[in-house]
Automatic annotation (TrEMBL), chain A:
Protein name: Xylose transport system permease protein XylH
Matches recorded under InterPro entries: ABC_transp_permease (IPR001851)
Primary location recorded for the protein, binned into one broad class: membrane
Keyword Ribosomal protein: no
Function: Part of the binding-protein-dependent transport system for D-xylose. Probably responsible for the translocation of the substrate across the membrane.
A cellular component annotation (GO) from this entry: plasma membrane
Organism of derivation: Planotetraspora silvatica
Keywords noted in UniProt: Cell inner membrane, Cell membrane, Membrane, Sugar transport, Transmembrane, Transmembrane helix, Transport
Recorded topology in the membrane: Multi-pass membrane protein
From TrEMBL, chain B:
Top-rank taxon, per record: Bacteria
Gene Ontology MF: a single term: ATP hydrolysis activity
Species of origin: Planotetraspora silvatica
Lineage, broadest ranks: Bacteria, Bacillati, Actinomycetota, Actinomycetes, Streptosporangiales
Protein's name according to its UniProt entry: ABC transporter ATP-binding protein
Boundaries of every ABC transporter domain copy: 2-238
Keyword Nucleotide-binding annotated: yes
InterPro entries: AAA+_ATPase (IPR003593), ABC_carbohydrate_import_ATPase (IPR050107), ABC_transporter-like_ATP-bd (IPR003439), P-loop_NTPase (IPR027417)
Keyword terms, alphabetized: ATP-binding, Nucleotide-binding
PANTHER family per UniProt: CARBOHYDRATE TRANSPORT ATP-BINDING PROTEIN MG119-RELATED (PTHR43790), SUGAR ABC TRANSPORTER ATP-BINDING PROTEIN (PTHR43790:SF8)
Length: 395, 239
């Protein structure tokens, strides 16, 4: 057995084009978009690329990004969740009322709010699977209904302020000291590098093809550079925000679950071909209900993070363009609206794109009317690319 | 040996099957032929546990077998490849082969073990796919059909039922799939092949069973039968 037989051969140009035609673009369009955004806004406004603004950006991403992560769970099945914004607002209000008006322990209030989110998702899932209502109708009803419940719960006051020095508000005002940030970077690099190495050894032992060593090295090197760059920039300002670490942890954890457990595999299977999944003995109903539960629970958590940033909940919580931003982020990041394709990193990359565009336009004092139109245009573009890729992949 | 014995099934006014019997031996390819509506799919569904017969049933090595649903059939070693490929186009070959019966340690997928067995299985069937980690959507029709058939072998069945496996394929890819069917026979499996294409049937089967209007209408050793006699049995014209 020589090295050539066990190294996965690189693609010929023809095969590479074929892969592109099938929508297998990976993260490259997003990376291109980010560079373009950095160049354009960076040259229009010198403050855009400053450590302070980039740190703000990291802080702004977490809440909507978490909601987007939940939306990915239903998009993977080829369904949609239009209620995520309202559910995030509702659960944030539940948390605020319990912890402020009722004086509960804030952690307990958060747990109950998350459970409320899970319950909402369970209801959506049951309406979708048992009553066979289209997901878009179920969650459209949810969009209006849960916002109604939010207004009802808030009642006269219409606003609940969270104490600035309370646990919830502190979440978004906690910054990692540099040593801790660097320790986390080192651990991430070590763990991902180590697991690549072990995986390589095991594959070679099983006489399975492995990617060329230089490619693995480039990937680890790239990860190191990106992480180190981010920590350097943010440490030049207030430091790495805890909120970003929480969001990042969720993204990585869900990625591992989707790729390395049978549950995750079945999510992709149901999104790819429901009939095939059913014939393979997979409980399609259970997967669908779980996806809606995950979506609403993550929406609830996103809502809590958002309340933490604002130190308050009000009638506008979870409203405005949050839902559109969350869906746009998922699609821009490469999650297909048609199901079966996408990774959790889409939430991270997509929200980075859309939030930096929004942030840049704020800096340039662009009117909100224009901001809405630009956001919609970016979403439309991402969906167009997704649709074209799908046409390429269906024979 | 797996056999269907005196199977009858009625759909409203239509007697889809009337006392149909069929024997399937290890290492033998049996072709089930008949005109549209002859009852071929209905018979397959009974054997595969998708529907229950009104009377009669399936026997395994002479013992009557209880087949209440497709899982029972699978447990008894009966594996079916349906006409519309039951593959997930977005998943790779390994994931499709093991779909629903993933190898895992606790809840974590054993990627390497699955890929190793997938490779061994495909190699033993002489199915050539350059990279089994790409989505199935990127394979040719013949490769996909081969993956669907290979998938039927994951549970180590005794009988593989193939419903029109070459219907949607071109000449070269049909040849690939027929080769694969021969290899199933070499493995000592019983194969039940449903086909409209008499050329395919004659190329690959050992025995031909003809259904007409829901009844047994003839049985031939492929080597001895002429095309005319098979066609006559299918159409009901006097031979
Ligand atoms: N689910 C069903 N409901 C009613 N009639 C059916 C059903 N399935 C099959 N039939 C009838 O049973 C007969 C046999 O059908 P089938 O087994 O599909 O034939 P073949 O596969 O040989 O073309 C046909 O007359 C068909 O119309
Ligand atoms: Mg049929």
């Amino acid at each position: 057995m020589n090295a050539a037989t066990v190294t996965r051969k690189p693609y010929t140009p023809k095969e590479a084009v074929e892969r592109l035609r099938h929508g297998d673009l990976g993260a490259w369009p997003v990376v291109g978009a980010l560079i373009a955004i950095a160049v354009v806004f960076g040259s229009l406004n010198e403050h855009f690329l400053s450590p302070e603004n980039l740190t703000n950006l990291a802080l702004q991403m977490a809440a909507t990004g978490t909601i987007s992560l939940g939306i990915i769970m239903v998009l993977l099945l080829g369904e949609i969740d239009l209620s995520a914004g309202s559910v995030s607002g509702l659960c944030a209000v539940v948390m605020a009322i319990l912890s402020v008006r009722q004086g509960w322990n804030p952690i307990l209030a958060i747990v109950v709010a998350l459970a409320a989110g899970a319950l909402v998702g369970l209801l959506h899932g049951i309406m979708f699977t048992r009553l066979r209502m289209p997901s878009f109708v179920v969650t459209l009803a949810g969009l209006i209904g849960w916002q109604g419940l939010l207004l009802y719960l808030l009642g006269e006051g219409g606003i609940v302020n969270l104490p600035f020095d309370g646990f919830v508000a502190k979440l978004s005002d906690t910054w990692l000291p540099p040593w801790l940030a660097w320790l986390i970077v080192a651990m991430l690099v070590l763990v991902s590098g180590g697991s690549s190495l072990i995986n390589r050894r095991l594959r070679l032992a099983a006489e399975l093809p492995v990617p060329p060593a230089w490619w693995t090295a480039v990937k680890i090197g790239g990860l190191t550079l990106v992480l180190a760059g981010a920590v350097l920039v943010m440490s030049a300002d207030r430091g790495v925000p805890l909120l970003l670490v929480i969001f990042g942890t969720l993204v990585v954890a869900f990625d591992l679950v989707l790729r390395h457990t049978a549950f995750g595999r079945w999510m992709y299977a149901v999104g790819g071909n429901v009939e095939a999944a059913r014939r393979a003995g997979i409980s399609v109903t259970r997967i669908r209900v779980l996806a809606f539960v995950l979506s609403s629970t993550l929406a609830a958590f996103g809502g809590i993070l958002s309340a933490s940033r604002l130190s308050a909940v009000n009638q506008g919580s979870g409203g405005s363009d949050i839902l559109l931003m969350a869906i746009a982020a998922a699609v821009i990041g490469g999650t297909s609206l048609f199901g079966g394709r996408g990774r959790t990193y889409a939430a991270l990359l997509g929200i980075l794109v859309i939030q930096s565009i929004t942030n840049g336009m704020y800096l340039l004092s662009v009117d909100s009317s224009v901001r809405y139109m630009v956001t919609a245009a970016v979403l439309a573009l991402a969906v167009a690319i997704d649709s074209l890729a799908r046409r390429g992949s269906t024979p | 040996m797996i056999s269907a014995k005196d199977v009858s099934k009625r759909y409203g006014a239509v007697q889809a099957l009337q006392d149909v019997s069929l024997d399937l031996h290890p290492g033998e390819v049996v072709a089930l032929v008949g005109d549209n509506g002859a009852g071929k799919s209905t018979l397959v569904k009974v054997i595969a546990g998708v529907i229950g017969p009104d009377s009669g049933g399936v026997a395994i090595d002479g013992e009557p077998a209880h087949i209440g649903d497709p899982h029972d059939a699978q447990r008894l070693g009966i594996s079916t490849v349906y006409q519309d490929l039951a593959l997930c186009e977005n998943l790779d070959v390994v994931a499709n082969l093991f779909l629903g019966s993933e190898l895992r340690k606790r809840s974590v997928l054993s990627h390497i073990r699955m890929e190793r067995s997938a490779r061994d299985l495909l190699t033993s069937l002489d199915v050539r796919i350059r990279d089994i980690r790409v989505p199935v959507a990127m394979l040719s029709g013949g490769q996909r059909q081969s993956v669907a058939i290979a998938r039927a072998l994951i549970g180590e069945p005794r009988l593989v039922i193939l419903d029109e496996p070459t219907a949607a394929l071109g000449v070269e890819q049909t040849a690939q799939v027929l080769d694969l069917i021969r290899r199933l026979r070499e493995r000592g499996l019983a194969v039940l092949l449903i086909s409209h294409n008499l050329a395919d049937v004659r190329a690959v089967s050992d025995r031909v069973v003809v259904l007409r209007l829901g009844r047994n209408a003839g049985e031939f050793r492929t080597a001895d039968a002429t095309q005319e006699s098979i066609v006559a049995a299918i159409t009901g014209a006097a031979a």
